[in-house]
Design brief:
Elements: H1 2-30, H2 37-59, H3 64-80, H4 97-101, H5 104-116, E1 125-126, E2 141-142, H6 158-165, H7 178-208
Helix pairs in contact: 1-2, 2-3, 2-5, 2-7, 5-6, 5-7
Length: about 230
C-alpha cells in the first residue's frame, strides 16, 4: 500500500507536467482559443494516467512480453473504437462494449468540445430560409463562396462546427459532456490502479508463505555407517 501511494504521489505530477508540455504547443501551433486550455490540459493528464496505470498493471503479469503485447493491442483497439474511425452503433455486441470502455473515446470527445466551444470562424454567414432565395439546407448558416454544396461549410462558431462534425463523427458533439468524459478517464485510471494493487498484494503474499523443506533425493543421500562394537 505504501508503494502504491508513493507511486501515485510521484506519478500524478509527472502526468500533469507531460500534459502541459503537450497542451501548450498544441494550442499555440493550432491557434485554438485559450479559453479551452485548462479543459484540454486536464483531459490529456487523465488520459496519460490511464495508460500509465494500465502499463504498470500489465507489467506485473507472469510473462512481461505478453503484458507488452496486451498493452499494444489495447492501444490499437482504442484507436479503432474512438468514434472517429467508425460509429459505435455500427458495431455488433459484445464488441461494441470496447467503444464504451476504452479511453480514446472520452479523450477525443472532450478535446474536440474544449478546443471548438469558444472558436469563431469567417467565411460563413447567418442564414434564414426563404430570404433572398438562399438555400440554408436546414442550417442556421451558409457560406457564400462555398462551391461544394455545403460540404466545406461547417459553421460560424465552434458549436456550429461541432454540430456539423457530429453528422460524420459520433464522438463529436456540441453538447457539454466534459466532466463526464473526465470522470470516465479518472475512473479507468483508478480501476487499473486497483488491479495493480490486487496483483501486487497477491504476488507479495505468495512469496511470504512458508515453503516446506525440499526432500533430498535418495540417490544423493548416503546412510551413515554403523559403528561395530
Amino acid at each position: 500500500m505504501a508503494y502504491l501511494l508513493a507511486n501515485v504521489i510521484v506519478q500524478v505530477p509527472m502526468m500533469l507536467l507531460m500534459a502541459l508540455c503537450i497542451s501548450v504547443p498544441f494550442f499555440a501551433i493550432g491557434g485554438f482559443p485559450w479559453e479551452g486550455f485548462v479543459y484540454a490540459f486536464l483531459l490529456y493528464a487523465a488520459n496519460m494516467w490511464v495508460w500509465e496505470s494500465m502499463g504498470q498493471f500489465f507489467a506485473l503479469g507472469a510473462n512481461p512480453i505478453m503484458g507488452m503485447l496486451n498493452y499494444a493491442n489495447i492501444w490499437f483497439a482504442a484507436t479503432l473504437f474512438c468514434g472517429l474511425v467508425f460509429r459505435g452503433v455500427d458495431v455488433i455486441w459484445p464488441i461494441r462494449l470496447l467503444y464504451y470502455i476504452l479511453p480514446f473515446k472520452y479523450l477525443f470527445g472532450g478535446i474536440s468540445w474544449a478546443i471548438y466551444k469558444d472558436a469563431e470562424y469567417s467565411g460563413a454567414e447567418a442564414c434564414t430560409a426563404g430570404i433572398d432565395g438562399i438555400d440554408c439546407a436546414g442550417r442556421d448558416f451558409y457560406c457564400p463562396n462555398d462551391v461544394t454544396g455545403g460540404l466545406q461549410c461547417w459553421g460560424r462558431t465552434g458549436l456550429e462546427v461541432l454540430r456539423s462534425g457530429s453528422y460524420l463523427y459520433e464522438v463529436v458533439s456540441p453538447t457539454d459532456y466534459y466532466f463526464f468524459y473526465l470522470l470516465m478517464l479518472l475512473a479507468q485510471a483508478f480501476v487499473y490502479k486497483a488491479l495493480q494493487f490486487v496483483m501486487l498484494y497477491t504476488k507479495s503474499m505468495a512469496n511470504q508463505r512458508a515453503k516446506p523443506p525440499q526432500l533430498e533425493r535418495a540417490n544423493n543421500s548416503k546412510p551413515e555407517a554403523r559403528k561395530t562394537p
